[in-house]
Specification:
The protein is of the alpha/beta class and 313 residues long. It folds into 3 domains: 11-86, Orthogonal Bundle (Multidrug-efflux Transporter Regulator, Chain: A, Domain 2), CATH 1.10.1660.10; 102-177, Orthogonal Bundle (Methyltransferase, Methionine Synthase (B12-binding Domains), Chain A, domain 1); 188-308, 3-Layer(aba) Sandwich (Rossmann fold), CATH 3.40.50. The protein has 13 helices and 7 strands. The strands form 2 sheets. A 5-stranded parallel β-sheet has the order 4-3-5-6-7, with helices on both faces. The longest helix is centred in the middle third of the chain and has 22 residues, at 134-155. The protein is globular.
């Protein structure tokens, strides 16, 4: 092992070195956890020799016809086997995703929320994003924290002001991660909540994961009238429309609304996400059921896109 720091690059440089597109590298990172970038204090992802090695191994495996998921799993498993052979594991250390103390992070966020301490909450989130991937931060900390806050409010443990303060801050951080279109060239997805759904944080997290996989997004947010969604579809012409709801009640539509939904499903791919959606409901609407938490649901949509969407010029 050399004594100097390992060289690191932005994703565009890594793509050039490996000879694949940035979109494909992002897909390998999001879908399979193949890449493990470090973050600068400014929030930029930097990739190192280990990422280059894995990407090259992935490329060679794909050239041999190995399915992408299988190839990534074998590459990561081989690295774990090699690491275990080099040193004894230390009890309590973190996995390759980073040293993430979920309980500690949640406790710190709760304490900062109850003190209405904006700086402290941002400090916890900054440290979190320097430690693990955006996807891990969302799945393992941000969304569980917001669920805990919601449950605490319902139980009377937190005031509505606590919930509003935390929601606004987390929503703002997710919005900052969900940046403009940039150089993304993937499918276009329109994201909205049904008319009775007021919570959009999970859908914003879903958007972040899709963007990191190279997708282009248009976000309408909560309380979106279905007629307005249909009008937006006519203008945007998205490849996919995703409706997300936290409870089954928000998907209880009248006949007029159902007619709009079914026309949407005929016009483009339609996905239903969130705890309120079900496979049975999706089937009855001619839609896809995007099951699981927002990170799982978004990565699942990315994986299905090749068979779901008709290639365009």
């Amino acid at each position: 092992m050399s004594g100097g720091p390992a060289q690191r690059w932005r994703i565009g440089v890594l793509a050039t070195r490996v000879g694949v597109s940035e979109t494909l590298l992002r897909a390998w990172e999001v879908r399979y956890g193949l890449l493990s970038p470090q973050r600068t204090q400014a929030g930029y992802r930097l990739y190192g020799p280990e990422d280059e090695r894995r990407a090259i191994a992935m490329q060679r495996a794909r050239e041999r016809g190995v399915p992408a998921g299988q190839a990534a799993a074998e590459i990561l498993a081989n690295e774990r086997t090699w690491a275990e052979a080099q040193e004894e594991p230390v009890e309590g250390t973190a996995s390759s995703s980073g040293s993430l103390d979920v309980v500690g992070a949640l406790s710190e966020l709760e304490a900062a929320m109850l003190a209405y301490d904006v700086g402290a909450m941002h400090e916890v989130l900054d440290r979190l994003l320097r430690t693990v991937s955006v996807e891990s931060a969302i799945r393992d900390v941000l969304l569980p924290f917001m669920a805990h806050v919601g449950q605490g409010w319902e139980a009377g443990d937190f005031d509505v002001a606590d919930e509003h303060f935390a929601s606004d801050l987390v929503r703002g951080r997710l919005a900052a991660l969900a940046v403009g279109p940039g150089t993304r060239t993937g499918p276009t997805v329109l994201l909205a909540c049904p008319p009775e759904e007021s919570h959009d944080i999970a859908l914003k997290a879903f958007e972040v994961v899709l963007q990191r996989a190279g997708w282009r997004t248009r976000f309408l947010g909560p309380h979106s009238p279905l007629a307005s969604i249909r009008a937006a579809v006519d203008v945007i012409d998205p490849d996919v429309v995703v409706l997300a709801g936290a409870t089954p009640q928000v998907f209880a539509l009248d006949d007029t609304e159902l007619a709009v939904v079914r026309r949407l499903a005929q016009q483009c791919a339609l996905g239903l996400a969130g705890a309120g959606a079900s496979a049975e409901l999706a089937e009855s609407w001619g839609a896809l059921h995007l099951a699981g938490d927002p990170v799982t649901a978004a990565t699942g949509l990315v994986e299905r896109a090749r068979t779901l969407l008709t290639p365009t010029d």
